What does this fold into?
Amino acid sequence: MPHNNNMKERLLSLVPVSFFLSAVILSLYDLGCATFGLSGDVSGIAAMFSMVPVLAVAIPSACAIAAYFLTWIYIRLSERGKAFRLLADVIIAALPLSLVPGLFSGAMISVSPWRWPLTIITMLAVFAAVRTLRVITLRMFVFLEEKTSWRVPAGAASLMAVAVILPFFHKATHGILPGLYRNFHQALSIAALGLCAACIFTAVSGMEIRHRHSRLAAAWAVLLIVFWFTGMFVSREAPIARQIMSEESPFSEPFMGPLFSIEHRILRIFTGTESSRMKRRSDVGLSFSDTGFNDDAVKRSVLLVTVDCMRGDVLDSDGPFARQAVKFRKLAQSSLWFEQAYSPGNSTVYAIPSLLTGRIQTRDMERIPPDDFLPSALRLAGYESLAFFAAHDMPSIEREIPVLSRHGFYFDRYENRLPGVEDILPAAIARVSRSEGPVFVWAHPADIHEPMLMAKAGKGRRGDFPANYFGQLAFMDSYLPQFLEKVSAEYPDLVWALTADHGQGLEMNRSSGHGFSLYNEEIRVPLLIRGPGVGKGRLRHPVSTVDLGATLLHLAGADVKGRLSILPLNQAEDTGDKSVTVFSKVGCALIKGPWKLIADISRGTVGLYNLKTDPGESRNMVEENYALAASMLDEMTLTGCDHDLSMLRTGRLAKD
It folds into this structure.
């Protein structure tokens, strides 16, 4: 710790400067990489430069302010002794430490005895790394204060280190660790910022921050703030710029959402734009409690299997999983296969409540009447309902779905301690065999849910498959299709459906994990149905699993009384005017015919894609089709999107 007041004051000046410069370098490096990827798109490149004020002012300023307060806290606590200095190190490391527990909450590891030891060891390692970096940097600072002749070579070496750090962390975020929790990527960004700031701090440690420097810095800040405010209005005409930066910039991405929210509030003050609330599909008044069985109806048992994180392109013969899902595709060919099925949400929090109520659920799930849930409706008809949810320790699910944590979705029995598909499916079908009356069983395995750090520790044949999405999907392919074929043979009167709550981004289209974007990687899901009266075939029109509950009720023998069932649709019908809406915390998506609109309120972006010509959603066509995008935004507000989309109605997307 520096031992005189002058050095302490210099720390308070140099540390924020170092973090500011480090953030500028990282942000502009992100901008350069993203712009380079546009490959000659002149309009896109021009739009990207509208992000310069945000990258040169907002993000670095936020980092500098945080660095100043952390430095001030560290100096004040360090003056009180070693114990308080240790507390200061904990405060400095708080952000990276907060990411660690989420890394060990997958389905397999949550029931492993290694979970908490690994969590504790990782947290200690992170803390030790942060503290070591702090100690080395301060000791180098003190050394250079005494050995001024070393400042130039030390500064040159530090800048060379920055040149090595930037491409390494950028490559690691995009290529080395795809498929892991987003926490890993955020941790890498924090590590890159810390290491770059330490190097730049060493490089500038010989600087004397004088009064004239402070005036120059103030003038620069005022000038950049003017540019930032100007950029707000310019960037509103270029949603593609924000979209590319938020998806292609590992360091800048965490800042894009909060900064856009601030910009939107400022713009609302200056422009007088009023917010608007949306009419949700859950306001329409449809309810499972209105469903009933006729007296002469044959009540069939129902098995619903929702595989957590299973992507819709798993069943595509020309997709990326051609070798890992051979048996799944064979199962699809002998079932009713909906090729373009979409989840009503991009995370379990929104998808499962929507599926079990037949309504796109958003924020008020606790207010849903118990009778509106599918298990309750079936219970009134004499069904026994049972749920087998994969073992998990995910506080967000319990917190954000109180109806799950308090009532278990109103199933008669709710079990969530079975770790893998080999445990869940036999337990589910055993209840069917033991039941004397009709039964509704929901099974939710999560073997391919990230992270899969403990997949190798799985029992039986699981350890023979790689511990990644592809490997564990291959493991499920070796078990689940065969199991469902056996169920169909042994229980011919049973109706079963196989789908997923959402997909999984694997960095194939700038999407990683789930719950963070609305690309098809995260929202398109498989949907297979088999049972009495269900023929095999392939239906290619878009459908939503929000209507799967009504479909299962119909197949079980119930009168759905006009509710939406996806079964009456067939290839001969004109389905061009039918649309599918997806809701998430980051925004909404609307699929209609070949077109798909993504309204991302977390980043302030609007994306329009032609899924027929661009199935990978790589070309945003908003700037060529503003009228179509505006009309789809209108439709989105009437079909389940509960977000305030007024912030996206700017420029040519604004209402007349």
About this structure: The chain has two domains: 5-255, 281-574. The CA atoms of residues 98 and 123 lie 9 Å apart. The mean pLDDT is 78.
